[in-house]
């Protein structure tokens, strides 16, 4: 026979559970966000998504989008986990680092071969950054009442 015991105040809150580690689905969410932007821009709107890299031009295809997002997502989560051992305020340090990385990454779309490609690449960078921030940083709801 199982005895039902209602939750008490000592039960972990969502914020406590959330602060134990980043959500690993964050990488998948970042990939979905990037693919959504890619799908709207390339197959639907017909944007030629390519960027200049040095003397050559690179076509940004779906495989490159998924691979880059996977690498960046895993690096973001790994950095947060490392900061949890190195810093007293790891989420703040991560947010500052992530903001700096986002600003630097926006230099990439500046190398796009056209305005539409540049806007698409910038939107992808922002979508991935947003997904990573939602998944890696603790978001707490305000208390009502």
What does this structure look like?
This protein has helices spanning 14-18, 25-44, 62-86, 90-105, 115-136; strands at 50-53, 56-59. It has 5 helices and 2 strands. It has a two-stranded antiparallel sheet. Helix 2 runs antiparallel to helix 5. It has one domain. 61% of the residues lie in helices and 6% in strands. The protein is elongated and about 45 Å long. Strand 1 and strand 2 form a beta hairpin. The protein is mainly alpha-helical.
Observed structural traits:
145 residues; mainly alpha; two-stranded antiparallel ribbon; 61% helix; elongated; transmembrane; DUF6069 family protein
Write the SSE topology.
Layout: H1 14-18, H2 25-44, E1 50-53, E2 56-59, H3 62-86, H4 90-105, H5 115-136
Antiparallel strand pairs: 1-2
Protein name: DUF6069 family protein
Transmembrane segments: 24-42, 62-81, 93-112, 118-139
Pfam families: DUF6069
């Amino acid at each position: 026979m199982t005895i039902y015991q209602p939750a008490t105040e000592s039960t972990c809150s969502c914020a406590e559970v959330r602060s134990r580690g980043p959500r690993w689905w964050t990488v998948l969410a970042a990939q979905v966000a990037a693919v959504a932007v890619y799908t709207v821009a390339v197959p639907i709107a017909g944007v030629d998504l390519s960027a200049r890299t040095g003397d050559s031009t690179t076509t940004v295809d779906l495989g490159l989008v998924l691979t880059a997002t996977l690498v960046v997502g895993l690096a973001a989560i790994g950095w947060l986990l490392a900061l949890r051992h190195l810093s007293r305020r790891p989420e703040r340090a991560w947010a500052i680092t992530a903001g700096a990385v986002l600003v630097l990454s926006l230099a990439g779309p500046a190398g796009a071969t056209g305005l539409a490609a540049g806007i698409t690449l910038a939107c992808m960078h922002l979508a991935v950054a947003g997904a990573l921030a939602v998944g890696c940083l603790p978001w707490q709801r305000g208390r009502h009442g």
